[in-house]
Amino acid sequence: MLRLLLVGEQRMFVEALSQYLCTEPDLWVADSADRADAELVERISRARPEVMVIDLAVLGDRVHEALRRLDESCPPVRIVVLASTASPELAVEAARAGTAAWLPKERGVTELVGIIRDVARGNAWYPPEVLGTVLRALRQDIRLADTRNDDPLAALSQREREVLAAMAEGKRGWQIAAELFISVQTVRKHTRGILTKLNVHSQLEAVMLARSAGSLPEPSGATVRALPRKTV
C-alpha cells in the first residue's frame, strides 16, 4: 500500500481529496496539512510517505527553493505538484528542484491517482504543454554545466549579471529597477533566476559565491536620467 501525505491551501480541499484517495485499495493518506508549515519536514518524517502531493499555492513565491529543501530533507519522498497555473517557468523551477510530477488541477483526481502510482514506481510526469520547455531548460543546464569551468556565473544571462552586480552594492529592488530601467517585478524574476542557477538560498549567498570566485561583474553603470527643467 502506498503511503501518501497531502498538503493543500484549503482544509476542505485537502479533506475531500484525502477521502477520495482513501477509496483506492492501494493508497493510504498517512497525514495531511492545509499549509506548508514549519513542521512539514517533521510531519513527513513521522508519516514516512512514499509520495507527497502538494498544492503549488502553498509554496509562495519561492517555488524552487521550497521544493528543493523538501527534496533534500526527505530524499525518499517523491513529490507531485498540483498546479492551478500552466506556467512553464514554474514547471521548470519544479523540475530543477527534483519534483517528480507537475499536474494541472483541471486534469482531475482520476488522472492524479494514476500519476501517484506511476511516480511511486520511479517515473516522472509533466503535461505536454510544459514538457518541451522543461526538457529544453534541463538540456541547457547540462550544456552550461559542461562549459562552466571555473566561472560560477556562466549560467547567468547578461541582465542577471547586472542585477547581481547591483545587489552586491547593497541596492534594493526598486533601486535596481530604476537603474536598469525595468520593473520591480522583473527584478524579482531575475533574482529568482540567479538563486536557482547558482543553487543558493539567498541574495547574500549569491554575492558571496561570486566574490569568492573573483567573478563578480561590474554594475552596468546605467543611471536614472534627470528630467529637463521647465522653462518659463
Automatic annotation (TrEMBL):
One of its GO terms (molecular function) is DNA binding. GO terms for biological process: phosphorelay signal transduction system; regulation of DNA-templated transcription. InterPro entries: CheY-like_superfamily (IPR011006), Sig_transdc_resp-reg_C-effctor (IPR016032), Sig_transdc_resp-reg_receiver (IPR001789), Tscrpt_reg_LuxR_C (IPR000792). The keyword DNA-binding applies. Transmembrane segments: none annotated. The keyword Transcription regulation applies. Residues 149-214 form the HTH luxR-type domain. The modification 4-aspartylphosphate is found at D55. Residues 3-120 form the Response regulatory domain. Keywords: DNA-binding, Phosphoprotein, Transcription, Transcription regulation. Pfam families: GerE. This is Two component transcriptional regulator, LuxR family. It comes from Actinopolyspora xinjiangensis.
